[in-house]
Amino acid sequence: MNKNTQPPVQSGDLLSFQPCPPPPGTLQPRRHTYLIGIEDDAASQVLESVMPLLDRLLAEKTAEVRERRLEQMVDFMTEQMLVPSTVDLQMARQLATRHARVLNEFGYLSAEQLADANRSQAANRHALADNWRKRRQVFAVRHPDASARTREVFPAFQFEQHKPIKAVQAILEAFGEHKAPWKIALWFTSNNGWLPDQARPVDWLTRDPEAVIAAARQDAGGSAA
Fold it and tell me: Per the record, which residues fall in region Disordered (predicted)?
């Protein structure tokens, strides 16, 4: 920065602040100084009163972000160093086969396809499906697309005429946050001892939804993430 150039002033309705550069010839300090202007006496008093709280919150947030980034780095390094065993590879192949079987039998829909099928006018083509998922009316699983990029798709058995089947919401609520999405998909498509003839929940979802909801509630206590 040219020594004759003043740092830009950031202005708002009540506050303005301007970075104060260090004196010429000094090293860049670790502590940065700002000149804050407050246009209102009441706002000035509020700022003075919340400064201790703001300082504590910033310190806590900084520590939280640093810890999260450290965990991400450790996870990445662990993945690079961890060599899967023969048993791990076999289990992964078996699980991938089960996942593929579910999607091949029942199909799946992307958020964009659901938006188009329901004639959504939202500019964000994910908005409709995301709204359904936030309300726990549907669930999505992760699946690689044609370019091998992993994306979230919605198993088609939870829809009727491209709209959520009402019973699905009660089933998802029964499991709460305790069952991972792919385990939910496998629960729907596996034989269940709480249903007549150990039928699959997916086959009774529209035939007798209350029976499927009851089966989900029975299984929910022992479900694993």
Answer: 1-27
State the DSSP string of 89-131: HHHHHHHHHHHHHHHHHH-EE-HHHHHHHTT---SSTTHHHHH
Nearest Cα to Cα of residue 154 among 117, 185, 189, 116: 185
Bridge pairing between strands 141-144 and 150-155 = antiparallel
Length of the chain: 225
Domain range annotation of the chain: 10-81, 86-220
pLDDT higher than 70, residue 192: yes
The pLDDT value recorded for residue 107 is: 96
pTM for the full predicted model = 0.63
CB 159 within 8 A of CB 206: no
The encoded tokens of residue 168 equal 């699905």
Residue among 26, 27, 24, 28 nearest 3 (CA)? 24
